[in-house]
What we know:
This protein is of the alpha/beta class. It has a domain at 10-198 and 230-257 and 300-318: NAD(P)-binding Rossmann-like Domain (Rossmann fold, 3-Layer(aba) Sandwich). It is 41% helix and 15% strand. It is built from twelve helices and twelve strands. The chain has helices at residues 18-30, 70-79, 94-99, 102-122, 162-181, 203-212, 232-245, 262-276, 307-313, 321-334, 336-342, 345-355, and strands at residues 10-13, 36-40, 60-64, 84-87, 131-137, 185-190, 192-194, 217-220, 226-231, 251-254, 259-261, 289-292. The longest helix has 21 residues, at 102-122. Bound molecules: nicotinamide-adenine-dinucleotide and 2'deoxy-thymidine-5'-diphospho-alpha-D-glucose.
Amino acid sequence: xxxxxxxxxxxxxxxxxxxxxxxxxxxxxxxxxxxxxxxxxxxxxxxxxxxxxxxxxxxxxxxxxxxxxxxxxxxxxxxxxxxxxxxxxxxxxxxxxxxxxxxxxxxxxxxxxxxxxxxxxxxxxxxxxxxxxxxxxxxxxxxxxxxxxxxxxxxxxxxxxxxxxxxxxxxxxxxxxxxxxxxxxxxxxxxxxxxxxxxxxxxxxxxxxxxxxxxxxxxxxxxxxxxxxxxxxxxxxxxxxxxxxxxxxxxxxxxxxxxxxxxxxxxxxxxxxxxxxxxxxxxxxxxxxxxxxxxxxxxxxxxxxxxxxxxxxxxxxxxxxxxxxxxxxxxxxxxxxxxxxxxxxxxxxxxxxxxxxx
Length: 358
Ligand code: NAD
Ligand code: DAU
């Protein structure tokens, strides 16, 4: 039987971030009877501007707090009789994990442990009516050579960055809580997402905004690294499918079967912007591309084998890269207020820290 999302409020953690806010929006669009508690610490990556429209709905509640706060998590699970948790909360940027790994250990490992342990205690004896979905990444599998087969659920873990290692550790804890305590867990390992509300530290939004503001487009190394891109709403649909119909204890890989080299992505963004928003002085945005010092330990290629989720849950991506990137660029052009709200001193500090010495 499908897991019901409507009998009890769903605890979504990290719902003020990029994927989390898209997930709540998608869920509300598909399921009129669902209610959500969004627990988010509002780090630099989370913003109430990402969930403004949701605030207007009675079935949405925001809770400002940390997933590592055991007392708060326990109280929330008990007070609202929460039976479904979707854990997006994380430090998510690889470059930041290189300059400051401690926060990744704290939130991604200790935070996930705290949530798992609170759920174990709250759900004792009623596990059948509960689900804990942990949103993870393909980066736990490490890197692929050009001819290697795509990552399957059986690929051994080989994380290469502090971010990937912290997510791998959290995945292992999720697995252990299922095997040891029978916690009804599900894990999704997804490839690179892009779309509305993505924080402009990640490749696609950074390139769009740098292009529009006349700044350099900083391509790491030779730009020939490969990522497997998925439009965020397709990821959200996959999470919903796994949450309602996935088998507890299982992991599901999610990806777009859209392998692209970084430099191709940057060229595509430039071409789209040349068409949609031509440079005032003429010329192409391509002229702003600069090759900069590579990311240390940079994984060369990611690719996802999504056969399992397709076969078991009939999930496939709906958006092609060409349609998804067009929608994304249009969204950034149309949401200048949102962009302006992020342009803080802290953002400028990050750009200096990550790019000044490259
Ligand atoms: P994001 O950085 O945009 O958002 C993270 C959110 O978590 C923010 O709202 C932040 O305030 C919140 N948060 C951080 N620490 C917290 C804490 N201790 N307690 C409560 N909230 C906290 O991240 P994203 O890109 O939306 O990624 C969401 C999840 O999906 C992450 O777990 C990430 O590892 C995973 N993932 C991301 C991608 C991608 O391409 N972005 C791909 C696969 C998996
Ligand atoms: O694969 C899933 C992962 O995808 C998620 O788990 C992470 O949370 C998410 O951040 C993303 O990780 P990446 O490191 O792949 O994403 P990022 O956007 O930082 O970089 C994508 C590629 O572009 C990568 O090869 C590095 C390169 N890059 C990135 C930036 C920010 C550049 O060349 N220049 C840049 O300025």
